[in-house]
Amino acid sequence: MTDLIMCQSCGMPLTDESRGTEADGSPSADYCSFCYQNGSFTQDLTMHEMLEINLQYIDQWNESIDTPMTVDEARAMLETVMPTWKRWQS
Q: Which of 1, 26, 53, 89 is least surrounded by CB atoms within 10 angstroms?
């Protein structure tokens, strides 16, 4: 089993198909295509804004995990884990 690699901006699982691109067109090692294209972030967001965007997809997220979370549980988890992601470290 391989470790899940996640976008270091939004947390989406990264696959060869979902990776963003660097300025030279090569696949990004860290970010998905929704967050990062041509070597730049696609949106100028704060971590809190990204967290709120993620929560809009709670139903889809719950379909892919064993123990569904409420919005409040997901928010608490994201508030803990997102600051460890590359984009949000400062």
A: 1
